[in-house]
UniProtKB/TrEMBL annotation:
Biased composition regions of type Basic and acidic residues, renumbered to the chain: 1-14, 21-36, 56-67
Species in which this protein is naturally found: Cognatiluteimonas sedimenti
Span list, region Disordered: 1-67
Name of the protein described by the UniProt record: Transcriptional regulator
């Protein structure tokens, strides 16, 4: 998949990115910055354009050691 290709994202993810982008533009960000922030946010929330449903790993998968 070429860099910047959004075809693997779900319709819901695309709508979320569009909504975030519009909000960022209202805050005075440039179109490029707003788009970058929107997709970074969607990726952080859902793990990118992954349709398998894995998304983010729950905290219980992380290994924590306490001493």
């Amino acid at each position: 998949m070429p860099r910047g290709d959004k075809s693997s994202y779900t319709d819901k993810q695309k709508r979320q990115a569009q909504h975030i982008e519009q909000s960022e533009k209202k805050e005075g960000r440039s179109k490029e910055d707003a788009e970058r922030i929107a997709w970074a946010t969607v990726n952080k929330q859902d793990g990118g354009g992954n349709k398998s449903g894995s998304g983010r790993k729950p905290d219980s998968d992380k290994t924590h050691t306490r001493h």
